[in-house]
# Entry
Amino acid sequence: MIALLLSILSSTLIFVAFKLFDRFKINTLHAIVVNYFVAFFCGLFFYKGDVSLSQVPEQPWFYYTLGLGILFIIIFNLMAITTQRSGLSVVSVATKMSVVIPIVFGLVYYKESLGVLKILGIILALIAVYLASIKTKDGITIQKKNLIYPLLVFLGSGFIDTSIKYLEDSMVAEDQAALFSAIIFSAAASIGILILIGQMIRGKFTFQLKTIIGGIALGLPNYFSVYFIIQALRSNVLESSDVFTVNNVAIVMASTLLGITFFKEKLLRKNWIGIILAVVSIFLVALAKW
# Structure
């Protein structure tokens, strides 16, 4: 349970970092690339296992982590496109609602328990995520030509969470969580560097020291969000469908409350209803386990 709480805290700090990027006019893409390097080195620092870096390509999960790293960058760019074309609320909903994919995977593939309380908790969690994420009175509107982008964000985000669950369960040794996380981030960092090189060639790259600072501020919680979600999935306290439900809805709730407290955000009635439903859904999912 402690690992799950730390994962929620780490992911919430990612929200804070992105809010500060906007306030201090930090180039998000550049900071994202720096963040992946920081997360990679965090993984190496905290890894205490026996496998050396030269042996990493021999690990059964190696090529899967490369794919995940590439997907990290792709989803980030799709999120940026979606934000530009349909708004931040659409991206928030698409990302958070993607939790349904690893939930269904856990229920079907691992044959996890599914009772009345759990079903009700999951449904309320999805409603809570939607209501807490919508920051406009009229809800969200998406032009038909732009529908593909949030759909890809939804599928990609869900696939990442599902893949992490599957790989940690079937391929990653007990002492390799830090190394596994590090290699995912190293792959993302490598693709990010290629993107930055492309910008340099086109004369569109401008170095800023605050980008490094922002990347460090993002990289630390980003690494721990992945590391601790793996630890939470490995615990016997909750099943994976429970972990993803509680983790996702708690992040939305905590991020929303932080937005009020530190960034003076104004919430609509639907946002408050979403927060209340989030608390109820977490309670129901936890109660269903016991």
Remarks:
- The chain has a mean pLDDT of 90.
- Residues 2-289 form one domain.
- The radius of gyration is 19 Å.
- Residues 87 and 140 are 8 Å apart (CA to CA).
